[in-house]
Design goal:
Layout lengths: L1 H16 L6 E6 L5 H11 L7 H10 E6 L3 H9 L4
Parallel strand pairs: 1-2
């Protein structure tokens, strides 16, 4: 979860730098088990970074995480984790 939080923070800073782009779509290619995507989404949805509530609501509303996976078996694991 710690690495996911670090990546989440970097993504948040990118979103700010891009003037709060909406949607802010993150694409991970070949995500394996989907652990990183799960950790990042958990960070965003539960405001683990402690962002001010008004900013966090905009951030969470604009954030999209998409996985491109060739393996059907891994894609099923990722779906089980709530990823798409």
């Amino acid at each position: 979860p710690h690495f996911g939080r670090v990546v989440c923070r970097l993504l948040f800073l990118m979103w700010i730098e891009l003037e709060e782009r909406e949607p802010f779509r993150v694409v991970e290619m070949g995500a394996g088990s989907g652990q990183l995507g799960h950790d990042i989404q958990q960070c965003v949805t539960s405001n683990e970074l402690g962002i001010a509530p008004a900013v966090w609501r905009r951030w969470a509303a604009s954030f999209e995480y998409v996985i491109m996976e060739r393996s059907p078996a891994l894609a099923r694991r990722q779906l089980h984790r709530g990823l798409r």
